[in-house]
Write a structure and sequence with these properties.
Low-confidence stretches: none
Shape: elongated
Helix content: 10-25%
Strand order of the largest sheet: 1-2-5-4-3
Oligomer: single chain
Number of domains: 1
Radius of gyration: 20 Å
Distance between the termini: 47 Å
CATH architecture: 2-Layer Sandwich
Structural class: alpha/beta
Largest sheet: 5 strands, mixed
């Protein structure tokens, strides 16, 4: 690698051409209908066909989900992923539109100092497990979640230890102790 390393953006926007017209039309309609709920920076049509990324204000996520369900027949929930962006933590909800088969990812950034936004589990029951996972692994609170519980880490995991955050250093060797070092002997099973 050379000393001059060029920063490559994670965004791969598609050209506004005929091949991506459906996605650009959908994105524009969403932006027009939802106004300030959508943040322009981070909202784009992806180069990959039928992919759209929408950056949403955390306090408006529920409005966006309701709108998409009612207006665009968005009922197919795929998953929720988390990211550590440094000063912010990000939750990314991945959906597919039933009719058009367009994949839409809704990104919500919350400050690391107060990582909280409202749960969508009453609107999307399938998000119940993954919102718990996001809380457990990244420390992002989904306020109003109906059934907060451990889903990935052991019950005795230390409070305020979030192993998917970039600054987590595993001070107690918790992950090292949990690793399997090859096959166990039959007598140990």
């Amino acid at each position: 690698m050379s000393e001059e390393t060029e920063f490559v953006s994670e965004h791969h926007p598609a050209p506004n051409d005929e091949r991506h017209q459906q996605e650009y039309s959908l994105m524009q309609k969403i932006k027009n209908d939802l106004g300030d709920a959508i943040i322009d920076d981070g909202t784009y049509v992806h180069l990959q066909p039928r992919r759209l990324f929408i950056q949403v204000r955390p306090d408006r996520l529920r409005d966006v989900i309701k709108y998409m369900q009612e207006t665009h027949d968005m009922w197919q929930f795929s998953t929720l992923s988390g990211r550590d962006l440094g000063d912010d933590l990000q939750a990314v909800y991945h959906f597919f539109l039933t009719e058009t088969k367009v994949g839409i990812s809704f990104r919500v950034n919350v400050p690391r100092s107060k990582p909280e936004y409202s749960s969508i589990t009453d609107l999307v029951p399938a998000a119940e497990y993954v919102e718990n996972e996001l809380r457990e692994l990244f420390g992002v609170i989904t306020a109003g979640h109906p059934y907060v519980r451990r889903v990935e880490l052991p019950e005795n995991w230390p409070k305020n230890e979030y192993p998917m955050r970039k600054d987590w250093a595993d001070p107690r060797g918790l992950m090292e102790r949990s690793k399997t070092l090859g096959a166990k002997a039959v007598e140990d099973l």
